[in-house]
Amino acid sequence: MSDIGSLSKGSSPVLRMESVRKTFGDTVVLRDVDLEVASHTVTALIGASGSGKSTLLRCANLLEDIDDGAIWLDGEEITDPRTDQDAVRRRIGVVFQAYNLFPHMTVLENITLAPRRVHGVDRTAAEQHARELLERLGLGTKAGEYPDRLSGGQQQRAAIVRALAVRPRLLLLDEITAALDPELVGEVLAVVRDLKGEGMTMVLATHEMGFARDVADQVCFLEGGVVLERGTAEQVFGEPQQERTRQFLRRIVEAGRL
Q1: What pLDDT, in 10s, does the model give residues 130-147?
Q2: What is the pLDDT of residues 207-230, one digit of tens each?
Q3: Residue 98: inside a domain, yes or no?
Q4: What residues contact 249, with CB distance under 8 A and at least 6 apart?
Q5: Is residue 1 part of a domain?
Q6: Which residues 6+ apart lie within 8 Å of 87 measured at CB?
Q7: Do the domain assignments include residue 113?
Q8: Which residues contact 115 (CB under 8 A, 6 or more apart)?
Q9: What is the rounded CA–CA span in Å between residue 101 and residue 152?
Q10: What CA–CA distance (Å, rounded) separates 83 from 92?
């Protein structure tokens, strides 16, 4: 994958969140969250539904305004009111659990829309890059298809291609397998695994515990909007320090999901 980034592990973090707080009305959704994501690493956010994982991702992409704290992208404070938020979003790719492909556009048109309209890439170059990505993600024959002609797994892979087409510095993945039939989950996770191999910096919220254990360099367990525990996948899954983390993982194991 081209233009994935130049920083290596141990360099300044691609994403840094410091004391981030987010409320909806009287409900505190994120409580003083600190997070650092190094270049070329995968950070997995795990925890029960409603723990704040999706909100954290939305705040990282400035889709939600934070109430306190600060967020940096490659050392630039992107929560500074003077920041050009559109310029920030052009450096971050986001894939949601709903594919959000435009139904009246072909796969190729969906993928090239942002590079052409937002980044000013000419049609020929945008289409060439899109076709290369589609080929690499197993959708080379689907460029001319409309989304409703694709399976759920193919649509989600197309959504990932669309996010990659803008050559993002950071890729955020929000429960991207949640809406898929079980037999389609593997093909989407295989794409994420390949992106890790290519060095893409990613933060993913997921309920796929086995996958998180296998691919994540850093795992953060969220509970009530707090990062209750963080560490390597081996540490968090193998020797969790917090009783609440142990309870959560025990239930995951009992449900046969780990």
Answers
A1: 999 999 889 999 999 999
A2: 999 999 999 999 999 999 999 999
A3: no
A4: 209, 237, 240, 258
A5: no
A6: none
A7: yes
A8: 121, 126, 129, 130, 165, 166
A9: 11
A10: 15
Please identify, among 152, 168, 184, the residue that sits at the C-terminal boundary of a domain.
168
- The answer to whether residues 173 and 203 touch, using CB atoms and an 8 Å cutoff, is yes
pLDDT confidence of residue 255: 82
Strands (E) in 38-91, as ranges, are 42-46, 68-73, 76-77
| Structural tokens at position 156 | 């989600």
CA atoms lying within 13 Å on the CB side of residue 225: 14
CA 116 to chain centre: 23
Tokens 């093909």 identify what position? Answer: 187
In the predicted structure, residue 171 carries a pLDDT above the cut 60: yes
Q: How far is CA 127 from CA 28, 111, 133, 146, 216, in A?
A: 43, 8, 10, 16, 32
Please tell me the total number of residues recorded for the chain in this structure: 258
Q: Is the pLDDT of residue 258 over 90?
A: no
| Domain count within the chain | 2
C-alpha to C-alpha distance for 219 and 149, rounded to whole angstroms: 36
Whether 73 and 15 have beta carbons less than 8 Å apart is answered as yes
Task: State pLDDT tens for residues 152-163.
Answer: 999 999 999 999
Q: Which of 244, 89, 238 is nearest to 171 (CA)?
A: 89
